[in-house]
């Protein structure tokens, strides 16, 4: 299809982030959780401007001929994005100021502003400023035609409108708000049962007159500049790629502006002066509320008020591995599926700790894309080397915003004696794979862990993912071939027959699976698929899904983020139903289910249907062969499709309307999934006890 209905990628992403903002508006959620969703929204938007909006800003600068070759108008795209973001920021301010601040007050938490302070508060603020803040505020008088001060990336500043006391002339200045050194929320003197807070911004506001004694302060307005986060490596295929990445990281914090935000109450004369001083154009600047960097709400003090947080939902142990007398025998006996964050991540950590200590283990291999700052897995790998194991780690240094952390881990692992392999030029390695080789009775036995999520002990507590432990030779032999490719950059001699691997057979294999459903529907036989992923953007895949819908294939989509495809459009996607679930945990798993003439083929994957995943990354999509595990995954998919509490309908209207169909009962899929797994563990324990 040439002209299929499509939602622009970045507009769809903004719609996803609006779903996050909707959670902050949801009065059924505990109060502190709603504040947390404000933080998530703000953090997401900051990254969007540092990456995607920076790219659009660069397109504005290209020549006319190049612009004519683009599928989109950069200027129109930037204007549309700014219009949507401004509208969302106004909603953000209403939620915070009209809904959340009054509710905090009802619980005895008062967020004071400068004019609300008592004499006691003011004395406390004066002392706090002099004792803790004075070395960091860096006041700068702005003088026209002088060297302009440098604004640090994502750093908060106050811009100040003043008048010279002697000459009466207007003057301007900026002062740093030192949130990079001090907590954003400061507790003021409080009476019993009350908690008075003030934001660091307002302490600086209260103190500016002391910094500019020769001036009369007219007013202050917050500002922030976000810088382009792209590394801009001109040529990845020549020279030392690792050295180029390190050099680019050093330049990231001084890159060009991608967004300048300011308090929407700022007068035009000050905005224009700042725009001229910092050489910004109209496409750089956006309005926000009184405060910026609202991702600092992650650190909002809770004062021990657990009733204003989500009720505890402790991850469940997986006794079949965690309590196994012989960990490796348990994996040989059967495949094991873990579902995070409902299951504890301990089974994965044990995979490496047991391997490190086991005298029969000779090799351990892992792909590292993102990893926890403090990681038992990485410690186990270093211990394994000390105990004589051959340990190989492939580190993807181009994992955006984790580049420096991955470089540090790489250096630390190398110092310990681990064989470290780094990024390929031109592609990213995004597979989530681990391999352990044991020599049992003189023969090689391979064990694998394959996952939809990273080897990250922290995000495993909040990201919803699947992980599969297996000793199935159909999979282990092919995973071993992937590691050989990563380590030696040699094309495997044998084709992949079970795994779908990026750069080899991933795109073609998925296309074949979709085409099979199209052929079945065309022949009048049942045909269906359910695709769960983070993002759907790739044009050839969307073409195929529209063709499948036209042929009569029933398609369910569960897409957390970007969805360029338009579900339910008459004549194009009549048979496609799409939902997005935003809830307590971040839906991160990729699952592809095809009816396949009743065979019910189920795949788990590290890849989304994005061009970057299917064409420019080493991804791994792996089949589920165990029938019980397959049934469990399909059961979880059915629960998500029945969600009528946190699911939003995907459509070209971008309205994020809640799905209220299905059962008359409230079905909240993440809660239902937790209890499904808990029931199954109880049933397994009862069966075990009955057998004894």
TrEMBL record:
Query: Can you name one GO molecular function term for this protein?
Result: polyphosphate kinase activity
InterPro entries named in the record: PP_kinase, PP_kinase_C_1, PP_kinase_middle, PP_kinase_middle_dom_sf, PPK_C_dom2, PPK_N_dom, PPK_N_dom_sf
Superkingdom of source: Bacteria
Q: Recorded E.C. number(s)?
A: 2.7.4.1
Kindly list the positions annotated as binding Mg(2+).
370, 400
Instruction: Explain the purpose of this protein.
Output: Catalyzes the reversible transfer of the terminal phosphate of ATP to form a long-chain polyphosphate (polyP).
Q: What name is this protein filed under?
A: Polyphosphate kinase
Species the sequence originates in: Neolewinella maritima
Source taxonomy: Bacteria, Pseudomonadati, Bacteroidota, Saprospiria, Saprospirales
